[in-house]
Amino acid sequence: MSAIIPVDLLAAATNPAYFSSLVTTNISNPTTIALLAYNDTFSTSILGPSATARQLYSLDYHAFHEAGAHNLATNSLYITANFASLSTPTNVTILDLSNNYSMSTVQYPDLHQPNGGTSWYPPGSPTGNGTTPPNLLFCDQGDLTHNSGLLSVDPLTNTSTIILNNYLSRNFSSVNDVRQHPLTGDLWFTDADYGYVRGFRPPPSIPKQIYRFRPSTGEIAVVADGFTQSNGIEFSPDLKTLYVADTGAIQFERNFTRPATIYAFDVVDGGTRLQNRRTFAYVDSGYPDGVHTDTQGNVWAGCGDGVHVWSAGGTLLGKIWVGVETNNFAFLPGAVLVFTNGQLWAVEGVRAVGREVCRDFGECGG
Ligand SMILES: *[C@@H]1O[C@H](CO)[C@@H](O)[C@H](O)[C@H]1NC(C)=O
Ligand SMILES: *[C@@H]1O[C@H](CO)[C@@H](O)[C@H](O)[C@H]1NC(C)=O
Ligand SMILES: *[C@@H]1O[C@H](CO)[C@@H](O)[C@H](O)[C@H]1NC(C)=O
Ligand SMILES: *[C@@H]1O[C@H](CO)[C@@H](O)[C@H](O)[C@H]1NC(C)=O
Ligand SMILES: *[C@@H]1O[C@H](CO)[C@@H](O)[C@H](O)[C@H]1NC(C)=O
Ligand SMILES: *[C@@H]1O[C@H](CO)[C@@H](O)[C@H](O)[C@H]1NC(C)=O
Ligand SMILES: *[C@@H]1O[C@H](CO)[C@@H](O)[C@H](O)[C@H]1NC(C)=O
Ligand SMILES: *[C@@H]1O[C@H](CO)[C@@H](O)[C@H](O)[C@H]1NC(C)=O
User: Fold this and answer.
1) Which of 18, 239, 260, 292 has an alpha carbon within 20 to 30 A of 280's alpha carbon?
2) What's the pTM value of the predicted model, to 2 decimals?
């Protein structure tokens, strides 16, 4: 159980040490989870008065890194583990939501170095609202002999299908994160250099870009470039805005003169192109990795000390603070699960509803 801690921004404005004493943890063995309200709306309408927070797991290996896609047929959440070495395949961690978050581990055929992921509605299938159990879609970062791209998995049969593994013959670097547009079915994804940075991909041969792929026709287009390391990607609930995180501050070394920034774009021309790139938020801790929105349009991102939450206008409203690098998180109905590699955390009794919860869980409120 965690009370919500109010942040005094005026006190912080003239005291650079303000935050270092507000809440602390032991980063070698983090056990503290705190809910920090930078703005009253965080307590009142985003988390709500009955939110509680706790640690679910603390392991000595990195089971909780990215993705966090839900599958309705199994009522499980699929979380990708962190890259360990080329000789140890990267696990996918399965969290059984019908059974007290119990966890198991799986490796899927042809999935080499999974990273981001989402639920996946193949062309022709009803796009959601719990109508048909979708499959899963993973970003495969590839390795020294396998291309990077997008791979779908049916978690009932554990079979996989390569959906995309090149850009009109050119190799991706290491595809990082993906969302499916709920109306067009297009897959929007980011490509970054982290496979090369971590020694499991050849040197990059293409810029860091944002792509849109139409799975029904194979049409593919670059919709944005100019990133140091394009990473998390997410739509606003009205699908008029696309958010893309740039984790450029971390490459071979950390250098905080590079971006740790979320950019926003207008999605135009019937959901096919981007316009009007602008800076949405620069984070004060680490770099923004996985990004998700809630149905009110607030933007949530995994950052250096937890999950940060901004209004659609870019006001920082609050943090789920854990004091360690947070790669991603997942919305469940009434809850948020937070991934910090070795640890998994839960905030329950949450009022905010993730943008995709209605579609993926078939729980549309009301
Ligand atoms: C921090 O955690 C590590 C690992 O559990 C432990 O060895 C160390 O004593 C802790 N440090 C403090 C100050 O509690
Ligand atoms: C709280 O955030 C809202 C935006 O959601 C903003 O309009 C308001 O000014 C903020 N309040 C304070 C006290 O900063
Ligand atoms: C649920 O799992 C937690 C660990 O995450 C454990 O402490 C607890 O005892 C379990 N509860 C039940 C009812 O199995
Ligand atoms: C994969 O998961 C198993 C537990 O099921 C664990 O023992 C192993 O260390 C994990 N591998 C990596 C590379 O994290
Ligand atoms: C899903 O259901 C919600 C609420 O019932 C509705 O607003 C939305 O339009 C539906 N979406 C689709 C893609 O059918
Ligand atoms: C693309 O990567 C594959 C290995 O995944 C490699 O065999 C091929 O030569 C690469 N193509 C180019 C154009 O670099
Ligand atoms: C798929 O993998 C999961 C996790 O290892 C396992 O529980 C399940 O039995 C497998 N299903 C099939 C059809 O092999
Ligand atoms: C940090 O990055 C900037 C921009 O790329 C570069 O100019 C600077 O030399 C770097 N600093 C260090 C200490 O590497």
Assistant:
1) 18
2) 0.95
